[in-house]
């Protein structure tokens, strides 16, 4: 038998060609995995670095808490771009078959890469300037009061939803001591929302915001009106609140050796520990002369161990705040609970004197961890060297909140009564935009929500969205000058903008403010009380926008509207009487230069 070799038929040639193409296609589209770790120049890992690959378009990825990342990709060679606030943008070519070790350099340019954030924003080119106010060793951010704006030129304004409440308790501290209040210590939106006014459980809105708007007459200007905007956050079932991982970061430096500082904080933290669950955890970092971890993460059920560690705290030494903050974040990252709430609670008088100490340096330090999922709460105490400006900055940049503890009752309010609202975040980057109808409103001004002078001077400033806890309530008040002959019932359009936790997609809810004008005398008592708080704050600020009433007028309105069974509202009346003694009862007068 003879075998004869023959040439492949045309069909076989086509089959070989198909197989060759398939092999090439599979190789070209193989799923590679680009892995690496991001560091700073000192070898510290950088978390939440925004990572973009050229092959993935605009889709962002992020480094984890250990600085590591892993990104599936269909190409072997790609271009990677890394961005993180406080660091120079890094762009380089990478290969998927090699583990990447990437180093980002600290930004050293003359222009800050961290944009200033605004509490409120109106597209108006005119802003008054004020000088910083200092009292003794205390410091406060220089604020610029919101002024009247023409609705036909600039109809849209906005304000952050979440606000702190530190200003009211700090003001109370000054008045109870018989002392005038620094004008820049007066933040009316914080004082107004200290009382959590008009909160009503939204019907069937467990996953949505509620918003109510009411227009009343204005008690200090008969020709104007007040627009009250009350926003209520979604509610979650508190029985389902996930576990919390807490880091107590406590200042035990020499400046804390006063009864209203470290001893107050020790009692305050014990109140919080009393309400912790076994599935919660607590660790304690202390700083004073040095930095140390006093207590490793411990179950909230081991209350004796936690309280025993708190009892050991003694004051002494310098204040290495920078190193302490870094240690606390590192510990929080190691004990991070991806299914829970992770928070650092910094308690101090704010008097940092070792390492990075300026507001800007501390802001950049905390901003590096802004996307880590670790929130920062700041508790301020003390007087004389209290640094309000530093703690306010740290809390805002740390996606957290800020409170001032002047007594144990305030500590209980912040750390027990209202702590769940702070702890469980239901919305992030939340702010409200209000667009006035020029056919109904001639001019308007937002009372409170005053911005820092340096933020207003920065053309890149943006409104800062807030982190909102469950059942949080916020009241905002506008003074408006109505059009003489209003021909529409639509006063303003209100939009709430926010993101759900762990989501980058912006949500929006829309509401309307209609012309439901009533006399303030006939309005709900909470609105009348809110108006008295606004008047109280404006007199403390010695505002030039308030010239037509006295402390007696504030007292009269507050006494007629306060809920005397509510300790906080009853206390407000007593504080107003103290303020009258300190400031006198003369009506606000125009300066000679105004005449």
Produce the secondary structure layout.
Layout: H1 10-28, E1 32-39, E2 50-53, E3 61-62, E4 68-73, E5 77-83, E6 90-95, E7 100-103, E8 117-118, E9 120-122, E10 134-135, E11 138-139, E12 143-144, E13 149-150, E14 156-160, H2 166-176, H3 188-193, E15 210-217, E16 225-232, E17 244-251, H4 262-274, E18 281-287, E19 291-299, H5 303-311, H6 321-334, E20 341-348, H7 359-367, E21 374-380, H8 388-397, E22 402-404, H9 408-417, H10 419-423, E23 425-436, E24 441-447, E25 451-452, H11 453-457, E26 462-463, E27 466-469, E28 473-482, E29 490-499, E30 506-514, H12 525-541, H13 551-561, H14 567-583
Helix pairs in contact: 4-5, 4-9, 7-8, 12-13, 13-14
**Shape summary:** globular
Main beta sheet strand tally, sense and closure = 6 strands, antiparallel
N→C terminal distance? 126 Å
Number of strands: 30
Kindly state the percentage of residues in helix: 25-40%
Estimated share of beta-strand residues: 25-35%
Number of helices: 14
Q: Which structural class should the secondary elements be placed in?
A: alpha+beta
Poorly predicted segments = 1-8, 23-29, 109-116, 125-134, 588-595
Q: Kindly state the mean pLDDT as a whole number?
A: 82
> What is the CA-based Rg, rounded?
28 Å
């Amino acid at each position: 038998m003879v075998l004869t070799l023959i040439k492949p038929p045309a069909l076989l040639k086509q089959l070989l060609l198909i197989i060759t193409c398939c092999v090439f296609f599979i190789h070209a589209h193989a799923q590679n995995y680009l892995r690496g770790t991001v560091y700073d120049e000192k070898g510290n890992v950088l978390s939440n670095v925004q990572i973009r690959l050229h092959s993935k378009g605009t889709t962002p990825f992020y480094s984890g808490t250990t600085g590591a990342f892993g990104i599936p990709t269909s190409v072997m060679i790609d271009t990677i771009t890394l961005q993180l606030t406080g660091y120079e943008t890094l762009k380089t070519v990478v290969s998927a078959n090699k583990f990447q070790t990437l180093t980002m350099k600290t930004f050293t340019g003359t222009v800050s890469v961290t944009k200033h954030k605004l509490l409120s924003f109106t597209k108006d080119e005119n802003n008054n300037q004020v000088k910083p106010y200092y009292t003794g060793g205390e410091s406060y951010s220089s604020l610029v009061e919101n002024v009247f704006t023409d609705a036909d030129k600039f109809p849209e304004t906005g304000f952050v939803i979440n606000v702190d409440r530190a200003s009211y308790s700090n003001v109370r501290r000054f008045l109870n001591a018989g002392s005038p209040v620094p004008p820049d210590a007066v933040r009316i939106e914080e004082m107004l929302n200290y009382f959590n006014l008009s909160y009503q459980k939204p019907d069937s809105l467990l996953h949505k915001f509620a918003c109510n708007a009411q227009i009343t007459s204005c008690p200090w200007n008969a020709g104007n009106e007040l627009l009250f905007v009350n926003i209520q956050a979604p509610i979650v079932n508190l029985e389902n609140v996930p576990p919390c991982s807490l880091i107590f970061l406590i200042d035990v430096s020499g400046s804390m050796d006063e009864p209203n500082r470290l001893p107050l904080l020790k009692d305050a933290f014990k109140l919080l520990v009393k309400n912790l669950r076994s599935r919660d955890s607590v660790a304690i970092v202390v700083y004073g002369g040095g930095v140390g971890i006093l207590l490793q993460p411990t179950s909230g059920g081991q209350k004796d161990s936690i309280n025993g560690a708190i009892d050991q705290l003694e004051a002494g030494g310098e204040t290495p705040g920078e190193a302490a903050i870094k240690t606390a974040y590192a510990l929080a990252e190691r004990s991070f609970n991806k299914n829970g709430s992770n928070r650092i609670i910094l308690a101090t008088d704010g008097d940092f004197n070792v390492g990075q100490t300026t507001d800007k340096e501390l802001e950049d330090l905390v901003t590096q961890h802004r996307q880590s999922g670790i929130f920062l709460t700041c508790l301020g105490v003390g007087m004389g060297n209290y640094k309000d400006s530093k703690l306010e900055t740290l809390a805002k940049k740390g996606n957290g909140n800020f409170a001032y503890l002047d007594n144990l009752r305030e500590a209980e309010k912040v750390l027990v009564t209202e702590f769940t609202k702070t702890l469980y975040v239901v919305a992030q980057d939340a702010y409200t935009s209000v667009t006035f109808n020029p056919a109904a409103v001639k001019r308007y001004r937002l009372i409170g929500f005053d911005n820092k002078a340096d933020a207003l001077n920065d053309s890149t400033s943006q409104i800062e969205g807030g982190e909102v806890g469950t059942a949080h309530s916020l009241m905002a008040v506008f003074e408006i000058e109505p059009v003489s002959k209003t021909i529409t019932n639509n006063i303003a359009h209100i939009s709430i903008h926010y993101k759900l936790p762990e989501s980058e997609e912006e949500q929006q809810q829309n509401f309307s403010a209609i012309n439901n004008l009533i006399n303030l005398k006939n309005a709900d008592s909470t609105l009348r009380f809110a108006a008295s708080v606004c008047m109280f704050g404006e007199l403390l600020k010695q505002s030039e926008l308030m010239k037509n009433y006295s402390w007696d007028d504030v007292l009269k309105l507050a006494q007629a509207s306060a809920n005397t069974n509510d300790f906080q509202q009853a206390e407000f009346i007593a504080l107003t009487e103290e303020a009258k003694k300190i400031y006198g009862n003369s009506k606000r007068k125009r300066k000679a230069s105004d005449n």
